[in-house]
Design a protein that fits this description.
Helix content: over 70%
Oligomer: single chain
Structural class: mainly alpha
Shape: elongated
Order of helices and strands: HHH
Length: about 70
């Protein structure tokens, strides 16, 4: 079993309420959801996954300038 440590932080009241509701709906403890979210964030950033708004801008650009991109690739 992996060692566990306590830590303290602060989040918005609205976000905490949503977290509590999510935990209740899933029948899980808040700490379990927080640990899962932190692990996902670290993994995502470790592998350089683009953020949603960045990918959206890229896709719009690609749609608009696809012929230009094809010419540049040649």
């Amino acid at each position: 079993m992996q060692a566990r440590e306590k830590f303290a932080t602060q989040i918005s009241s609205d976000l905490l309420a949503e977290l509590r509701n999510q935990a209740k709906e899933e029948g899980r403890q808040i700490q379990s959801l927080v640990e899962e979210a932190i692990a996902a964030l670290i993994e995502e950033r470790r592998h350089g996954k683009a953020r949603t708004h960045v990918m959206s801008a890229y896709q719009k650009s690609h749609f608009r300038f696809a012929p230009l991109y094809d010419k540049l690739a040649k």
